[in-house]
Amino acid sequence: MNEIWDGLVHAAFLILTLNADLYEIAGRSLQVTLAALVIASAVALPLAALLAVQRFRWRRATIALLNALMGLPPVVVGLIVYVILSRSGPLGVLGLLFTPTAMVIAQVVIIVPLIASVAHQSLRELWSEYHDLLISMNTGRVQRIATLLWDGRRSLLTAALAGFGRGVGEVGAIMIVGGNIDHVTRVMTTAIALETGKGNFALALGLGMILIALSIMVNLAIHWLGRTETEGRW
After folding, report:
1. How far apart, in Å, are the Cα atoms of 148 and each of 120, 144, 184, 213, 225?
2. Mapping DSSP to helix (H, G, I), strand (E, B) and coil, where does residue 186 land?
3. For residues 32 and 214, what is the distance between their CA atoms, to the nearest angstrom?
């Protein structure tokens, strides 16, 4: 019990004194996850809007696939990305394995289905409200998608925040493709696993506190956006 208490006190001390190692790892985590979030949102949000406004042959199958991929084990994603980026893989010549770029790629694959599925649910409801109006105005497909993305921006931000929460807490895929290299690919989740195994509870708890704080902030933001969106409709 004393060891845990001492670790908590030391962890708080590391946070308050702006420990370089702690904030380097936390900063790298944010950098990787935010980069993945921007790329994933650029892919997932237009795809969600397209699925809402366009009827095509494989639409239902695409929606079902996105929903299924939400439950894809991250370690499987990490393994697939590892094989593709390894020296014997199709993209091995790029030398991306065990770099932050590989970690971004893995996170993009993980969070795109989540963002697209959550966004599609909201945009589908919005499309049912706008359908007759936009059809009567003889708008094109691109205009309809742009209108949905703009008017549904609050719900889309909620989807993006959900993707951020999923990405920042990921450990399995990141460990596989990043290698947890100190000062290169070590992020909060992999550092927590490593430092706990080494018995360095202070750094692990400090990183854990930051990770928990980020998770709470994301969940509060999602809750607040959900409330404002509901109140706005009334």
Report:
1. 11, 6, 40, 32, 17
2. coil
3. 14
Tell me how many degrees the CA angle 17-22-23 measures, rounded to the nearest 5.
Answer: 80
Question: Cα 6 to the chain's mean position, in Å?
Answer: 33
**SS3 for 231?**
helix
- Of 99, 104, 155, 164, the closest CA to residue 127 belongs to 155
The CB-based long-range contact list for 183-190 (8 Å cut-off, 24+ gap) reads 183/24, 184/98, 184/99, 184/100, 185/28, 185/98, 185/99, 185/100, 185/102, 185/103, 186/25, 186/28, 187/25, 187/28, 187/29, 187/32, 187/103, 188/25, 188/26, 188/29, 189/29
User: How does pLDDT run along the chain (234 residues), one tens digit per residue?
Assistant: 566 677 778 888 888 888 888 899 999 999 999 999 999 999 999 999 999 888 888 888 988 998 888 888 999 999 999 999 998 889 989 999 999 999 999 999 999 999 999 999 889 888 888 888 888 888 888 888 888 898 888 888 888 988 998 898 888 899 999 999 988 999 999 999 888 888 888 888 889 899 888 888 887 877 776 666 555 554
Question: Do 166 and 178 touch, CB atoms closer than 8 A?
Answer: no
Rounded CA-CA distance 47/115 in Å is 10
Using alpha carbons, list the distances in angstroms from residue 225 to 6, 191, 230, 232: 38, 32, 9, 10
Query: Where on the phi/psi map is residue 174: left (φ > 0), alpha (ψ -120 to 50), or beta?
Result: alpha
